[in-house]
Amino acid sequence: MRRRPAEYRRPVRRRLSQWIWALIGMFLIAGLVLFVFLHNHPEDQVKQPIMGEHAIKEPIKHRGLNFTKEILNASSFSRQLAEQMTLAKAYVIIAKEHNNLHLAWELSKKIRSCQLLLSKAAMRGEPITVEEAEPIISSLSYLIFKAQDAHYDIATTMMTMKSHIQALEERTNAATVQSTFFGQLVAEVLPKSLHCLKIKLINDWLKQLPLQNHAEEKRNSPRVVDNNLYHFCIFSDNILATSVVVNSTVCNADHPKQLVFHIVTDGISYGSMQAWFLTNDFKGATVEVQNIEEFSWLNASYAPVIKQILDQDSRAYYFGADQVMKVEPKLRNPKYLSLLNHLRFYIPEIYPLLEKIVFLDDDVVVQKDLTRLFSLDLHGNVNGAVETCLETFHRYYKYINFSNPVISSKFDPQACGWAFGMNVFDLIAWRKENVTAQYHYWQEQNADQTLWKLGTLPPALLAFYGLTEPLDRRWHVLGLGYDMNIDDRLIDSAAVIHFNGNMKPWLKLAIGRYKPLWERYVNQSHPYYQDCVIS
Ligand SMILES: *[C@@H]1O[C@H](CO)[C@@H](O)[C@H](O)[C@H]1NC(C)=O
Ligand SMILES: *[C@@H]1O[C@H](CO)[C@@H](O)[C@H](O)[C@H]1NC(C)=O
Ligand SMILES: *[C@@H]1O[C@H](CO)[C@@H](O)[C@H](O)[C@H]1NC(C)=O
Ligand SMILES: *[C@@H]1O[C@H](CO)[C@@H](O)[C@H](O)[C@H]1NC(C)=O
Ligand SMILES: *[C@@H]1O[C@H](CO)[C@@H](O)[C@H](O)[C@H]1NC(C)=O
Ligand SMILES: *[C@@H]1O[C@H](CO)[C@@H](O)[C@H](O)[C@H]1NC(C)=O
Ligand SMILES: *[C@@H]1O[C@H](CO)[C@@H](O)[C@H](O)[C@H]1NC(C)=O
Q1: How far is the CA of 112 from the centre of ligand 2 (A)?
Q2: Residue of the nearest CA to atom 8 in ligand 5?
Q3: Is the CB of 277 under 6 A from ligand 6?
Q4: Is ligand 4 within 6 A of the CB of residue 434?
Q5: CATH code, domain carrying 321
């Protein structure tokens, strides 16, 4: 029901290619105008493409606000609305093509209220407030999800076109791509091929009792708690991505048998993840898979983030109170609220007997032996990480609201940010410094989302403040999910490359130049891969 079968799609392909060309034309023109704007800054040009045919024709009276600036501001609601509207407009065309007139009508209705709000804000010269924007953003994102779900492949095509426009913007502000609501939507949709892989594997898991027995034996292996070995943890529901992380680590290790991988996944992916790691060869490394649902200690009375997820108010913040009930379950658990994402704050509790561990995100590829990380001197710090403030925008004040006196009295706004994705954690120091308690404290302070909006990095910057040891930049090279211009030599020299950003290597919108770096660690002759991904 979710995805149309291939036979069904074929007859409409020719018609599709017509509107695809029309869209490409549209986007190219929009891109061109944007490009010209970025270089000349004449005020009126940009309003036309962004706001569409209903844009206000009369020149705007600027009082308090420069609306041109506002609509280009990555964190403003006007920008978010304008972007959603562009996407929604494309979906109106697609929905009409597929005779989904009701969806097209719903989308058009929302687009109109969006345009109305934008022109109202432009006229009165004041930025759009959260109260005004939130109902429209939430209902539009719901409709966009609905449209995306029905027409996934088309969505990918469109995102590729959209990324051309983003590439233009990137030159002025790389952070923009990261923060766009847009890209985030698509990056969160699991491609059909990965679904297929999961289903085949879960079948194996359920049918083959020996696999389950084997898993039970592994669980009790003394190796998983042996501090003479090298331990890595990965928290993910994406099997192929996790496999690439593990495989690339063992392939580049001098002694793969000395490595132990600790994977935690969700209940839905648990059986498939087990089946994959039990039936594939990882050069003798130990792999443990756990199910987050079995962590009974991780509950709402202990972890503030769970309480916040369960909290109706918190959901209403993202989706609008009247939407909460109508929204599909998948939407209630978007990535930024996902518990797997917050597990990184509970590492000492998940592995109470371990002393040191390397944390890897599921969108990295390892290219060098990582065991040397375990002997680096962290100078008593808890977290070894690469810093990210080479670019000016990765300082604390960019992530956290310094208008709040609780923040400004304790932290330096110019302090350098650092990256999650490849971190070495000294778990003894972590326990001694009560970092998890610190995280709980800040997460509770942020119940109303005024300190930061989303994600795990802002609370981590607070919890690990003064406890982070900067590592050589080559340990962890970032940006392969959004930056098209990373120097090849830098990539070659990197111990770990990170596909942070929306263009993940397992998506069709991956950046072509970097995709082989990830793909070479996938066993392309695996029958399931052939059935699900290649065909
Ligand atoms: C608005 O911002 C643009 C771009 O920064 C600038 O070129 C223009 O002069 C500003 N207009 C006013 C009225 O401040
Ligand atoms: C962008 O918008 C945010 C939120 O509305 C505001 O705090 C910030 O100052 C704006 N930045 C610029 C450069 O206008
Ligand atoms: C919740 O977690 C706490 C400690 O993390 C534990 O003591 C308590 O028993 C847990 N509650 C339930 C219902 O499992
Ligand atoms: C951590 O917590 C323990 C007990 O709650 C306390 O005794 C200790 O002083 C705390 N350590 C730090 C560095 O705050
Ligand atoms: C930042 O903090 C101040 C003071 O607590 C608050 O008034 C303001 O709304 C916050 N800003 C955001 C964007 O949440
Ligand atoms: C791991 O990577 C190697 C080489 O890059 C590849 O040949 C192998 O098939 C991969 N293994 C798995 C399980 O994907
Ligand atoms: C790839 O997978 C197939 C089927 O499971 C297996 O026979 C083969 O040895 C694997 N190749 C590598 C290089 O791991």
Answers
A1: 25
A2: 450
A3: no
A4: yes
A5: 3.90.550.10
**387 and 296 assigned to the same domain:** yes
Residues 392 and 527 grouped into a single domain: yes
Nearest residue (by CA) to ligand 1, atom 14, is: 66
What is the spatial distance between Cα 288 and Cα 220, in angstroms, rounded to a whole number? 10
CA distance 298 to 514: 37
Q: Is residue 46 part of a domain?
A: no
Query: Has residue 172 been placed in a domain?
Result: no
Q: Which residue has the tokens 């994705």?
A: 421
CB 372 within 8 A of CB 495: no
Is 61 close to ligand 1, i.e. is its CB under 6 Å away? Answer: no
Q: Which domain holds residue 113?
A: 67-152
Q: Are residues 146 and 211 in the same domain?
A: no
Q: Is 75 in the pocket of ligand 2 (CB under 6 A)?
A: yes
pTM, to two decimals: 0.67
- Tokens 């709402």, residue located: 300
Non-local CB neighbours of 241 within 8 Å, separated by 6+ positions: 362, 363, 504, 506
- Please tell me the distance from the alpha carbon of residue 513 to that of residue 485, in angstroms, as a whole number: 10
The domain boundary, picked from 129, 152, 175, lies at: 152
Number of domains within the chain: 2
d(CA 461, CA 452) in angstroms, rounded, equals 11
- pLDDT of 476 reads 96
With a cut of 80, say whether residue 223 has pLDDT above it: yes
Q: Whose C-alpha lies nearest to ligand 6, atom 11?
A: 523
56: CA distance to ligand 2 center in Å? 22
* Domain-embedded: residue 19: no
34, pLDDT greater than 50: no
pLDDT at position 59: 39
* Angle formed at CA 338 by CA 333 and CA 339, multiple of 5 degrees: 130
Q: Is residue 18 part of a domain?
A: no
Chosen domain end from 152, 179, 205 = 152
Which of 474, 366, 364, 377 shows the shortest CA–CA distance to 420?
364
Ligand 7 centroid to residue 243 C-alpha, Å: 13
User: SS3 of 55, please?
Assistant: coil
pLDDT mean across residues, the chain? 78
Name the band, by pLDDT with cuts 50, 70 and 90, for residue 5: very low
DSSP per-residue string spanning 96-108: HHTT-HHHHHHHH
User: Quick count: other Cβ atoms within 10 Å of Cβ 435?
Assistant: 23
